[in-house]
Write a structure and sequence with these properties.
mainly alpha
Length: 66
């Protein structure tokens, strides 16, 4: 949940029953399934590539160390 917005960029489950229900739901709702996939992929490219991680996390630390 700290890396992606649940229900928007990623989907989660807490039990096998909840997983079963979500699989059935998303198989029946293709556009919502595709929207989560698109938004999750976009979030990954925006926040979780090496370039984004280095620029957002490592470089500020190096600047502080100066």
């Amino acid at each position: 949940a700290a890396l992606f917005e649940v229900g928007v960029e990623i989907e989660t489950y807490r039990s096998s029953g909840e997983l079963r229900d979500k699989v059935a739901y998303y198989l029946a709702h293709e556009e919502q399934r595709r929207a989560i996939a698109r938004q999750g992929h976009a979030a990954f490219l925006r926040k979780h590539t090496w370039e984004a991680r280095i620029g957002g996390q490592l470089l500020p630390l190096l600047e502080e160390a100066r």
